[in-house]
Amino acid sequence: MERQIINKKKRVFSVEPNKIPPSEVFTRKYTRLLVPALKKLNMNKNSSQANQLTVKHEVDMALALSAQEFAWSRFLLQKLSSSNNPTTTTSSSSNGIRIQKRSGKEGGDEDGEIEEKMRELQKLLPGGEEMNVEEMLGEIGNYIKCLELQTIALKSIVEDTT
Amino acid sequence: MDLSVLERVKWLQQQQMVSPEFFEILGSDGREELKRVESYLGNNNDEWQSFRHYETIDGCISRTSSFQMEQVKNNEENRATALQHKRKTEGKTEKIENKKNKKIKTEDETESSMKGKSNMSNSETSSEIQKRDYIHVRARRGEATDRHSLAERARREKLSKKMKCLQDIVPGCNKVTGKAGMLDEIINYVQSLQQQVEFLSMKLSVLNPELDYHINELSTKQFQACFTDLPEAVSKQSMMVDASSFPLQHQESLDYSVINSIQTTTLGSKDQTSSGWEIHSQSLYNNLRTDSDSSFFSLK
Questions:
Q1: Domain spans of chain B, in order of start
Q2: Which of A43, B160, B181, B259 has the fewest CB atoms within 10 Å, counting from its CB?
Q3: Where in the cell does this protein reside (chain A) (predicted)?
Q4: Whole-number Å distance between alpha carbons of B10 and A76
Protein backbone atom coordinates (compact mmCIF):
# COMPACT_ATOMS: atom_id res chain seq x y z
CA MET A 1 0.00 0.00 0.00
CA GLU A 2 2.70 2.35 0.96
CA ARG A 3 4.55 1.73 -2.21
CA GLN A 4 1.49 2.44 -4.21
CA ILE A 5 1.04 5.65 -2.36
CA ILE A 6 4.62 6.57 -2.94
CA ASN A 7 4.32 5.78 -6.58
CA LYS A 8 1.23 7.82 -6.79
CA LYS A 9 2.98 10.66 -5.12
CA LYS A 10 5.83 10.36 -7.55
CA ARG A 11 3.45 10.56 -10.39
CA VAL A 12 1.84 13.67 -9.18
CA PHE A 13 4.90 15.83 -9.54
CA SER A 14 6.15 16.26 -13.02
CA VAL A 15 9.83 15.99 -13.51
CA GLU A 16 10.16 19.30 -15.23
CA PRO A 17 7.30 21.41 -14.11
CA ASN A 18 8.38 24.35 -16.14
CA LYS A 19 8.72 22.57 -19.39
CA ILE A 20 5.99 24.51 -21.08
CA PRO A 21 7.33 27.89 -22.00
CA PRO A 22 5.34 30.68 -20.43
CA SER A 23 4.61 32.30 -23.74
CA GLU A 24 2.76 29.21 -24.83
CA VAL A 25 0.89 29.15 -21.60
CA PHE A 26 -0.12 32.71 -22.11
CA THR A 27 -1.27 32.34 -25.66
CA ARG A 28 -3.11 29.18 -24.94
CA LYS A 29 -4.97 30.75 -22.09
CA TYR A 30 -5.60 33.81 -24.13
CA THR A 31 -7.11 32.13 -27.10
CA ARG A 32 -9.10 29.78 -24.96
CA LEU A 33 -10.58 32.71 -23.15
CA LEU A 34 -11.09 35.00 -26.04
CA VAL A 35 -12.61 32.72 -28.61
CA PRO A 36 -15.54 31.47 -26.57
CA ALA A 37 -16.18 34.99 -25.40
CA LEU A 38 -16.34 36.15 -28.96
CA LYS A 39 -18.63 33.33 -29.86
CA LYS A 40 -20.87 34.27 -27.02
CA LEU A 41 -20.88 37.85 -28.13
CA ASN A 42 -21.67 36.76 -31.58
CA MET A 43 -24.71 34.89 -30.53
CA ASN A 44 -26.04 37.27 -27.99
CA LYS A 45 -25.84 40.65 -29.49
CA ASN A 46 -28.41 42.07 -31.78
CA SER A 47 -27.27 45.58 -32.37
CA SER A 48 -23.85 46.28 -33.66
CA GLN A 49 -23.47 49.57 -31.93
CA ALA A 50 -21.71 48.47 -28.83
CA ASN A 51 -19.94 45.84 -30.80
CA GLN A 52 -16.53 47.37 -31.00
CA LEU A 53 -16.42 48.35 -27.41
CA THR A 54 -17.50 45.02 -26.12
CA VAL A 55 -15.02 43.23 -28.29
CA LYS A 56 -12.32 45.46 -26.92
CA HIS A 57 -13.61 44.71 -23.50
CA GLU A 58 -13.35 41.02 -24.11
CA VAL A 59 -9.92 41.39 -25.56
CA ASP A 60 -8.68 43.25 -22.54
CA MET A 61 -10.37 40.83 -20.23
CA ALA A 62 -8.73 37.91 -21.92
CA LEU A 63 -5.37 39.63 -21.63
CA ALA A 64 -5.83 40.28 -17.97
CA LEU A 65 -6.99 36.79 -17.22
CA SER A 66 -4.22 35.07 -19.08
CA ALA A 67 -1.47 36.95 -17.36
CA GLN A 68 -2.51 36.75 -13.79
CA GLU A 69 0.97 36.45 -12.37
CA PHE A 70 1.66 40.05 -13.00
CA ALA A 71 0.61 43.05 -11.05
CA TRP A 72 -0.69 45.02 -13.96
CA SER A 73 -3.21 42.34 -14.81
CA ARG A 74 -4.88 42.82 -11.47
CA PHE A 75 -5.23 46.51 -12.13
CA LEU A 76 -6.58 45.83 -15.55
CA LEU A 77 -9.17 43.48 -14.15
CA GLN A 78 -10.19 46.07 -11.65
CA LYS A 79 -10.63 48.62 -14.35
CA LEU A 80 -12.64 46.29 -16.46
CA SER A 81 -14.90 45.06 -13.75
CA SER A 82 -15.53 48.43 -12.21
CA SER A 83 -16.70 50.13 -15.34
CA ASN A 84 -19.73 49.12 -17.29
CA ASN A 85 -18.50 50.92 -20.29
CA PRO A 86 -15.39 49.15 -21.37
CA THR A 87 -12.26 51.16 -21.10
CA THR A 88 -9.88 51.62 -23.94
CA THR A 89 -6.25 51.20 -23.20
CA THR A 90 -5.20 53.88 -25.60
CA SER A 91 -6.64 56.63 -27.60
CA SER A 92 -4.60 56.79 -30.68
CA SER A 93 -5.08 60.44 -31.49
CA SER A 94 -3.83 61.76 -28.20
CA ASN A 95 -0.90 59.45 -28.29
CA GLY A 96 0.02 60.67 -31.70
CA ILE A 97 0.12 64.19 -30.42
CA ARG A 98 2.17 63.10 -27.50
CA ILE A 99 4.76 61.53 -29.68
CA GLN A 100 5.13 64.60 -31.80
CA LYS A 101 5.46 66.84 -28.82
CA ARG A 102 8.13 64.74 -27.34
CA SER A 103 10.35 64.96 -30.34
CA GLY A 104 10.19 68.69 -30.40
CA LYS A 105 10.90 69.22 -26.78
CA GLU A 106 14.46 69.98 -25.94
CA GLY A 107 16.28 71.45 -23.05
CA GLY A 108 15.07 71.68 -19.58
CA ASP A 109 16.13 69.64 -16.68
CA GLU A 110 17.46 66.29 -17.70
CA ASP A 111 16.21 64.64 -14.60
CA GLY A 112 12.90 66.34 -14.99
CA GLU A 113 12.53 65.02 -18.50
CA ILE A 114 13.30 61.54 -17.43
CA GLU A 115 10.84 61.77 -14.60
CA GLU A 116 8.22 63.04 -16.96
CA LYS A 117 8.79 60.16 -19.28
CA MET A 118 8.58 57.75 -16.43
CA ARG A 119 5.27 59.21 -15.52
CA GLU A 120 4.04 58.86 -19.06
CA LEU A 121 5.15 55.28 -19.07
CA GLN A 122 3.29 54.78 -15.85
CA LYS A 123 0.16 56.05 -17.47
CA LEU A 124 0.46 53.53 -20.25
CA LEU A 125 0.78 50.61 -17.93
CA PRO A 126 -2.45 49.66 -16.21
CA GLY A 127 -1.94 50.37 -12.58
CA GLY A 128 1.40 51.93 -13.27
CA GLU A 129 0.64 55.04 -11.37
CA GLU A 130 0.25 53.16 -8.17
CA MET A 131 3.61 51.53 -8.43
CA ASN A 132 6.97 52.96 -7.72
CA VAL A 133 9.43 53.41 -10.51
CA GLU A 134 11.52 50.30 -10.12
CA GLU A 135 8.56 48.03 -9.87
CA MET A 136 7.02 49.66 -12.84
CA LEU A 137 10.04 49.12 -15.00
CA GLY A 138 9.91 45.44 -14.29
CA GLU A 139 6.23 45.21 -14.96
CA ILE A 140 6.55 47.09 -18.21
CA GLY A 141 8.75 44.33 -19.55
CA ASN A 142 6.10 41.73 -18.85
CA TYR A 143 3.41 43.92 -20.21
CA ILE A 144 5.24 44.48 -23.47
CA LYS A 145 5.78 40.80 -23.94
CA CYS A 146 2.16 40.01 -23.27
CA LEU A 147 1.05 42.71 -25.63
CA GLU A 148 3.25 41.29 -28.34
CA LEU A 149 1.82 37.85 -27.85
CA GLN A 150 -1.64 39.27 -27.79
CA THR A 151 -1.14 41.03 -31.10
CA ILE A 152 0.10 37.84 -32.67
CA ALA A 153 -2.86 35.93 -31.33
CA LEU A 154 -5.33 38.50 -32.53
CA LYS A 155 -3.70 38.69 -35.90
CA SER A 156 -3.89 35.01 -36.42
CA ILE A 157 -7.48 34.92 -35.31
CA VAL A 158 -8.38 37.66 -37.73
CA GLU A 159 -6.32 36.38 -40.57
CA ASP A 160 -7.47 32.87 -40.05
CA THR A 161 -11.00 33.69 -40.76
CA THR A 162 -10.60 35.99 -43.70
CA MET B 1 55.27 57.31 -2.84
CA ASP B 2 55.80 53.62 -2.65
CA LEU B 3 53.54 53.41 0.27
CA SER B 4 50.85 55.21 -1.52
CA VAL B 5 51.25 52.98 -4.48
CA LEU B 6 50.83 49.97 -2.27
CA GLU B 7 47.82 51.46 -0.66
CA ARG B 8 46.47 52.19 -4.01
CA VAL B 9 46.90 48.66 -5.11
CA LYS B 10 45.23 47.42 -1.99
CA TRP B 11 42.39 49.72 -2.58
CA LEU B 12 42.09 48.52 -6.10
CA GLN B 13 41.90 44.98 -4.97
CA GLN B 14 39.28 45.74 -2.44
CA GLN B 15 37.04 47.59 -4.66
CA GLN B 16 36.87 46.71 -8.26
CA MET B 17 33.68 47.90 -9.57
CA VAL B 18 33.07 49.03 -13.02
CA SER B 19 29.97 50.34 -14.46
CA PRO B 20 30.60 51.58 -17.91
CA GLU B 21 27.00 52.43 -18.32
CA PHE B 22 27.47 55.28 -15.97
CA PHE B 23 30.12 56.66 -18.18
CA GLU B 24 27.75 56.55 -21.05
CA ILE B 25 25.07 58.27 -19.19
CA LEU B 26 27.20 60.85 -17.57
CA GLY B 27 29.39 61.71 -20.42
CA SER B 28 29.27 65.38 -20.70
CA ASP B 29 29.71 66.22 -17.10
CA GLY B 30 33.16 64.83 -16.83
CA ARG B 31 35.38 67.78 -16.99
CA GLU B 32 33.46 69.92 -14.64
CA GLU B 33 33.06 67.08 -12.29
CA LEU B 34 36.77 66.64 -12.16
CA LYS B 35 37.41 69.93 -10.52
CA ARG B 36 34.50 69.71 -8.24
CA VAL B 37 35.47 66.26 -7.27
CA GLU B 38 38.96 67.28 -6.51
CA SER B 39 37.82 70.02 -4.31
CA TYR B 40 35.48 67.74 -2.49
CA LEU B 41 38.19 65.29 -1.86
CA GLY B 42 40.49 67.85 -0.50
CA ASN B 43 38.12 69.35 1.92
CA ASN B 44 35.97 66.59 3.06
CA ASN B 45 37.33 64.49 5.72
CA ASP B 46 34.77 62.44 7.46
CA GLU B 47 32.05 62.95 4.96
CA TRP B 48 33.46 61.17 2.06
CA GLN B 49 31.10 61.27 -0.70
CA SER B 50 31.18 59.01 -3.62
CA PHE B 51 32.00 60.56 -6.87
CA ARG B 52 31.18 60.06 -10.39
CA HIS B 53 33.93 60.82 -12.74
CA TYR B 54 34.11 60.40 -16.38
CA GLU B 55 37.24 60.15 -18.34
CA THR B 56 36.78 61.80 -21.60
CA ILE B 57 40.31 61.47 -22.76
CA ASP B 58 40.37 57.86 -23.68
CA GLY B 59 37.46 56.15 -22.23
CA CYS B 60 40.02 53.53 -21.57
CA ILE B 61 39.65 52.21 -18.14
CA SER B 62 42.69 50.10 -18.08
CA ARG B 63 45.19 52.87 -18.30
CA THR B 64 46.89 53.95 -15.15
CA SER B 65 47.75 57.43 -14.21
CA SER B 66 48.53 59.01 -10.98
CA PHE B 67 47.19 62.31 -10.04
CA GLN B 68 48.62 63.75 -7.04
CA MET B 69 45.58 64.80 -5.28
CA GLU B 70 45.62 66.87 -2.23
CA GLN B 71 44.39 64.25 0.03
CA VAL B 72 43.77 64.45 3.63
CA LYS B 73 45.51 62.06 5.88
CA ASN B 74 42.39 60.19 6.84
CA ASN B 75 42.13 58.69 3.48
CA GLU B 76 42.30 55.17 4.60
CA GLU B 77 39.43 55.48 6.96
CA ASN B 78 37.19 57.08 4.50
CA ARG B 79 38.20 55.05 1.61
CA ALA B 80 35.24 52.85 1.98
CA THR B 81 33.03 55.56 0.73
CA ALA B 82 35.28 57.74 -1.24
CA LEU B 83 35.54 56.55 -4.75
CA GLN B 84 37.76 58.46 -7.00
CA HIS B 85 38.30 57.69 -10.55
CA LYS B 86 41.46 58.95 -12.17
CA ARG B 87 43.74 57.90 -14.84
CA LYS B 88 47.13 56.84 -13.82
CA THR B 89 50.10 57.47 -15.94
CA GLU B 90 53.33 57.20 -14.20
CA GLY B 91 55.86 59.65 -15.31
CA LYS B 92 53.60 62.40 -16.26
CA THR B 93 54.60 64.48 -13.38
CA GLU B 94 54.15 67.72 -15.13
CA LYS B 95 50.59 67.01 -15.77
CA ILE B 96 50.19 66.05 -12.20
CA GLU B 97 51.60 69.24 -11.00
CA ASN B 98 49.44 71.24 -13.27
CA LYS B 99 46.41 69.48 -12.05
CA LYS B 100 47.54 69.99 -8.57
CA ASN B 101 47.78 73.67 -9.10
CA LYS B 102 44.38 73.75 -10.59
CA LYS B 103 43.14 71.84 -7.68
CA ILE B 104 44.50 74.28 -5.24
CA LYS B 105 42.70 77.04 -6.95
CA THR B 106 39.43 75.33 -7.06
CA GLU B 107 39.78 74.28 -3.52
CA ASP B 108 40.34 77.77 -2.42
CA GLU B 109 37.26 78.82 -4.16
CA THR B 110 35.07 76.17 -2.83
CA GLU B 111 36.55 75.70 0.54
CA SER B 112 34.42 78.19 2.22
CA SER B 113 31.28 76.76 0.88
CA MET B 114 32.03 73.19 1.70
CA LYS B 115 30.16 71.48 4.40
CA GLY B 116 31.85 69.24 6.88
CA LYS B 117 35.21 69.60 8.42
CA SER B 118 37.98 70.70 6.26
CA ASN B 119 41.26 69.28 7.20
CA MET B 120 43.44 70.82 4.67
CA SER B 121 46.68 70.07 6.27
CA ASN B 122 49.36 69.71 3.72
CA SER B 123 48.85 69.67 0.10
CA GLU B 124 52.00 67.71 -0.27
CA THR B 125 51.23 64.94 2.09
CA SER B 126 48.45 63.81 -0.10
CA SER B 127 48.41 60.17 -0.65
CA GLU B 128 46.89 58.93 -3.74
CA ILE B 129 43.61 57.30 -3.55
CA GLN B 130 42.77 57.76 -7.13
CA LYS B 131 41.72 54.42 -8.29
CA ARG B 132 40.03 53.24 -11.33
CA ASP B 133 37.13 51.15 -12.16
CA TYR B 134 34.63 52.11 -9.58
CA ILE B 135 31.02 52.82 -9.76
CA HIS B 136 30.74 56.45 -9.16
CA VAL B 137 27.71 58.24 -8.07
CA ARG B 138 27.36 61.92 -8.49
CA ALA B 139 28.21 63.77 -5.37
CA ARG B 140 25.60 66.28 -4.63
CA ARG B 141 26.13 69.14 -2.31
CA GLY B 142 24.88 68.35 1.08
CA GLU B 143 24.45 64.69 0.42
CA ALA B 144 24.65 63.63 3.92
CA THR B 145 26.13 60.34 4.93
CA ASP B 146 27.67 57.33 3.44
CA ARG B 147 24.60 55.23 3.80
CA HIS B 148 22.58 57.55 1.73
CA SER B 149 24.99 57.62 -1.11
CA LEU B 150 25.43 53.91 -1.02
CA ALA B 151 21.74 53.33 -1.00
CA GLU B 152 21.30 55.68 -3.84
CA ARG B 153 24.01 53.98 -5.73
CA ALA B 154 22.36 50.62 -5.20
CA ARG B 155 19.10 52.04 -6.38
CA ARG B 156 20.66 53.40 -9.51
CA GLU B 157 22.28 50.09 -10.19
CA LYS B 158 18.93 48.38 -9.99
CA LEU B 159 17.39 50.89 -12.29
CA SER B 160 20.10 50.61 -14.88
CA LYS B 161 19.86 46.86 -14.73
CA LYS B 162 16.19 47.00 -15.48
CA MET B 163 16.75 49.48 -18.24
CA LYS B 164 19.17 47.05 -19.76
CA CYS B 165 16.61 44.31 -19.69
CA LEU B 166 14.10 46.56 -21.31
CA GLN B 167 16.64 47.36 -23.94
CA ASP B 168 16.66 43.74 -24.93
CA ILE B 169 12.93 43.55 -25.14
CA VAL B 170 12.17 46.69 -27.00
CA PRO B 171 13.57 46.67 -30.50
CA GLY B 172 15.60 49.60 -31.56
CA CYS B 173 16.74 50.52 -28.14
CA ASN B 174 20.30 49.58 -28.81
CA LYS B 175 20.88 52.52 -31.03
CA VAL B 176 19.76 55.01 -28.50
CA THR B 177 21.85 55.75 -25.50
CA GLY B 178 20.82 57.42 -22.35
CA LYS B 179 17.80 56.99 -20.21
CA ALA B 180 15.66 59.58 -21.91
CA GLY B 181 16.04 58.18 -25.39
CA MET B 182 15.41 54.67 -24.25
CA LEU B 183 12.35 55.70 -22.35
CA ASP B 184 11.14 57.42 -25.46
CA GLU B 185 11.55 54.26 -27.44
CA ILE B 186 9.84 52.20 -24.83
CA ILE B 187 6.92 54.56 -24.66
CA ASN B 188 6.56 54.57 -28.41
CA TYR B 189 6.71 50.84 -28.55
CA VAL B 190 4.09 50.32 -25.89
CA GLN B 191 1.83 52.83 -27.54
CA SER B 192 2.20 51.22 -30.91
CA LEU B 193 1.48 47.82 -29.45
CA GLN B 194 -1.62 49.08 -27.75
CA GLN B 195 -2.78 50.75 -30.91
CA GLN B 196 -2.23 47.57 -32.77
CA VAL B 197 -4.32 45.65 -30.29
CA GLU B 198 -7.04 48.20 -30.53
CA PHE B 199 -7.03 48.10 -34.28
CA LEU B 200 -7.10 44.35 -34.37
CA SER B 201 -9.95 44.17 -31.96
CA MET B 202 -11.87 46.61 -34.08
CA LYS B 203 -11.20 44.49 -37.09
CA LEU B 204 -12.32 41.51 -35.12
CA SER B 205 -15.52 43.19 -34.16
CA VAL B 206 -16.24 43.93 -37.77
CA LEU B 207 -15.57 40.39 -38.79
CA ASN B 208 -17.20 38.89 -35.79
CA PRO B 209 -20.45 37.68 -37.29
CA GLU B 210 -18.67 35.90 -40.05
CA LEU B 211 -16.04 34.24 -38.01
CA ASP B 212 -15.79 30.55 -38.01
CA TYR B 213 -14.35 29.62 -34.72
CA HIS B 214 -13.55 26.08 -35.46
CA ILE B 215 -10.43 27.09 -37.17
CA ASN B 216 -9.15 28.69 -34.06
CA GLU B 217 -8.74 25.41 -32.34
CA LEU B 218 -6.11 24.58 -34.84
CA SER B 219 -4.41 27.89 -34.42
CA THR B 220 -3.96 27.28 -30.74
CA LYS B 221 -1.99 24.21 -31.63
CA GLN B 222 0.09 26.30 -33.91
CA PHE B 223 0.85 28.68 -31.14
CA GLN B 224 2.24 25.87 -29.13
CA ALA B 225 4.98 25.31 -31.58
CA CYS B 226 5.75 28.84 -32.18
CA PHE B 227 6.83 30.65 -29.16
CA THR B 228 9.98 30.87 -27.24
CA ASP B 229 10.08 31.43 -23.56
CA LEU B 230 8.46 34.32 -21.91
CA PRO B 231 10.19 34.70 -18.60
CA GLU B 232 8.17 35.58 -15.62
CA ALA B 233 10.39 38.45 -14.75
CA VAL B 234 11.59 41.02 -17.18
CA SER B 235 12.29 39.22 -20.37
CA LYS B 236 15.50 39.39 -22.21
CA GLN B 237 14.50 37.45 -25.22
CA SER B 238 13.50 38.58 -28.59
CA MET B 239 10.59 37.29 -30.53
CA MET B 240 12.50 34.76 -32.51
CA VAL B 241 10.35 31.85 -33.29
CA ASP B 242 11.25 28.58 -34.84
CA ALA B 243 8.52 26.47 -36.29
CA SER B 244 10.64 24.18 -38.32
CA SER B 245 10.15 21.34 -35.92
CA PHE B 246 6.42 21.41 -36.15
CA PRO B 247 4.97 21.00 -39.59
CA LEU B 248 1.36 21.95 -39.62
CA GLN B 249 -1.42 21.87 -42.08
CA HIS B 250 -2.57 25.39 -41.72
CA GLN B 251 0.78 26.88 -41.44
CA GLU B 252 0.78 27.94 -45.00
CA SER B 253 -2.14 30.24 -44.61
CA LEU B 254 -0.69 31.61 -41.46
CA ASP B 255 2.61 32.14 -43.17
CA TYR B 256 1.02 34.34 -45.71
CA SER B 257 -0.95 36.22 -43.18
CA VAL B 258 2.09 36.85 -41.11
CA ILE B 259 4.16 37.78 -44.08
CA ASN B 260 1.54 40.14 -45.28
CA SER B 261 1.44 41.93 -42.04
CA ILE B 262 5.16 41.87 -41.58
CA GLN B 263 6.49 43.34 -44.73
CA THR B 264 10.17 43.43 -44.20
CA THR B 265 11.13 39.99 -43.20
CA THR B 266 14.46 38.54 -42.53
CA LEU B 267 12.99 35.35 -43.77
CA GLY B 268 13.25 36.29 -47.36
CA SER B 269 12.51 32.96 -48.83
CA LYS B 270 9.35 31.10 -49.50
CA ASP B 271 10.26 28.41 -47.12
CA GLN B 272 7.07 27.54 -45.43
CA THR B 273 7.99 25.69 -42.36
CA SER B 274 10.86 27.62 -40.93
CA SER B 275 10.34 31.07 -42.20
CA GLY B 276 6.72 31.49 -41.43
CA TRP B 277 6.96 32.16 -37.79
CA GLU B 278 10.34 33.71 -37.53
CA ILE B 279 9.25 37.00 -36.28
CA HIS B 280 11.98 39.42 -35.65
CA SER B 281 10.92 41.84 -33.05
CA GLN B 282 12.52 44.60 -35.03
CA SER B 283 10.57 43.90 -38.15
CA LEU B 284 7.46 43.40 -36.15
CA TYR B 285 7.97 46.76 -34.61
CA ASN B 286 8.55 48.48 -37.91
CA ASN B 287 5.58 46.89 -39.44
CA LEU B 288 3.38 47.41 -36.53
CA ARG B 289 3.92 51.06 -37.07
CA THR B 290 3.38 51.09 -40.76
CA ASP B 291 0.76 48.42 -40.78
CA SER B 292 -1.43 49.94 -38.17
CA ASP B 293 -1.36 53.31 -39.84
CA SER B 294 -2.04 52.11 -43.32
CA SER B 295 -4.64 49.53 -42.58
CA PHE B 296 -6.29 51.75 -40.07
CA PHE B 297 -7.04 54.15 -42.82
CA SER B 298 -8.09 51.44 -45.17
CA LEU B 299 -10.68 50.26 -42.75
CA LYS B 300 -12.35 53.61 -42.85
A1: 3-50, 171-225
A2: A43
A3: Nucleus
A4: 54
